[in-house]
Write a structure and sequence with these properties.
Number of strands: 5
Shape: rod-shaped
Strand order of the largest sheet: 1-4-5
Structural class: alpha+beta
Distance between the termini: 44 Å
């Protein structure tokens, strides 16, 4: 009976040792699959080309309206990046100067081309990471370095 008790004590001791020294780790079952996409960042970029907005002989107030339409489309009610804010302010100043010249000098017809062109806009974007397949993992346990799910099985 002492042999049986000794054997039970050895087995219990081995089990206690195995449990006490068990290695717990995270095993990845499925690697994450992700990609980068471009998404709108909420701001706009304005550029100025060299195409004439008006033409010689056009009614001057109609020309001012054309400039105002350009500004309204590209600049009004939008959030711009820094360089575009400055461009919109300059363009606005040109319109105000044209109105002032027309009122002060009685200009009724476009006699020469104004220094600004047409405005165009594009929405700015930022990179964003999109996870298509999330990582799946679980807690693994290794007993005595070879029983269960051991890290060497990775």
């Amino acid at each position: 009976m002492t042999i049986a008790l000794s054997a039970v004590a050895i087995v219990v001791g081995a089990l206690v040792f195995a449990i006490a020294t068990a290695q717990h780790w995270t095993k990845t079952d499925q690697e994450e699959v992700a990609r980068t996409v471009q998404v709108p960042d909420g701001t706009w970029h304005v550029t100025l080309d060299d195409k004439d907005v008006c033409y010689v002989g056009q009614n001057y107030w109609d020309c001012i309206d054309e400039y105002t339409d350009q500004w309204n489309f590209a600049c009004a009610q939008r959030t711009h990046d820094a360089s575009s804010r400055e461009l919109c302010e300059q363009y606005y100043d040109v319109i105000q100067e044209m109105k002032s010249d027309a009122a002060r000098d009685g200009i009724s017809e476009v006699s020469g081309l104004v220094q600004s062109g047409r405005l165009s806009i594009r929405e700015n974007t930022k990179s964003e990471r999109v996870v298509d397949v999330p990582e799946r993992s679980h807690e693994a346990v290794c007993y005595l370095g070879f029983i269960g799910e051991c890290p060497s099985e990775r």
